[in-house]
Design brief:
Strand order of the largest sheet: 1-2
Shape: globular
Largest sheet: 2 strands, antiparallel
Number of strands: 2
Order of helices and strands: EEHHHHHHHHH
Distance between the termini: 53 Å
Number of helices: 9
Helix content: 55-70%
Length: 243
């Protein structure tokens, strides 16, 4: 027996989700509630009313579709992406909203045409959360929105010799550890590096200084790589840091 489509207060999830995205955005809400006069053949003698109205509906749907990952989380990220909103976000609140959205969009709660739509919505929510909860992926995503690609740019490297020496020394310390307990101070120190980098990125994006944001995003890639190496530590396992 097919399960009933997920509803929220008696409404289909997708209708609720549409309202949810619009609720924090007055400009999109205005577009959604505006109902223009229906066109007639007198207004457009060279084309059919059906063709015109169908195109209008499609354009309206396209304009209401979330344009960035931030719009999928209107409660946590109501100010939107920088420079209007901050770069640093509350990841605990983000996860809470993510779980709420995923519970409603889960494909198993829908059937028929709505199931395919749910799968698409679920995938989009997953991708947005994965990107936004990670400071490095968030920075790379925000830069990509402005036409700057540092995620795939292999030439984007740090020329600071002191930083590179610090990275190499940290790698040696990780490889030399005999017990996981020896990594505690290394983890704490690296968490401080990541936090400092986030603060620098926050200032750069707030002031719309994309050059500074790009430079710091490249540095942050080193610290996140060290974090991943610490989390995946195994005795005697060589550490490979991707620059």
């Amino acid at each position: 027996m097919l399960s009933k489509p997920a509803t929220v207060n008696g409404r289909h999830f997708f209708a609720h989700f549409h309202d949810y995205i619009l609720s924090q955005n007055p400009c999109r809400r205005a577009v959604a509630t505006h109902r223009p006069r229906l066109a007639t053949s007198r207004d457009f003698p060279s084309r059919s009313v059906r063709s015109y109205t169908a195109s209008s509906v499609n354009l309206r749907k396209e304009s209401l579709r979330p344009q960035t990952h931030y719009e999928l989380f209107p409660n946590t990220l109501s100010s939107g992406p920088p420079p209007e909103g901050p770069f640093v976000i509350d990841t605990r609140e983000l996860r809470k909203e993510f779980l709420q959205l995923q519970a409603k969009a889960h494909p198993d709660r829908h059937h028929g045409e709505n199931k395919a739509r749910a799968e698409g919505a679920s995938a989009r929510i997953n991708e947005a959360y994965k990107t936004l909860q990670n400071p490095l992926l968030r920075a790379q995503y925000l830069l990509s929105l402005r036409g700057i690609d540092v995620a795939e740019d292999e030439t984007a490297k740090v020329e600071d010799p002191d930083l590179l020496m610090e990275v190499l020394e940290t790698r040696e310390d990780i490889e030399a550890a005999q017990e996981e307990s020896e990594l505690k101070l290394l983890k704490e120190h690296n968490e401080e590096r990541v936090k400092e980098s986030e603060n620098i990125l926050n200032a750069a994006f707030t002031s719309d200084d994309l050059d500074a944001a790009k430079e710091e995003a490249v540095k942050l890639r080193y610290w996140i790589n060290i974090k991943e190496s610490l989390d995946a530590w195994e005795k005697g396992k060589p550490v490979v840091l991707v620059h």
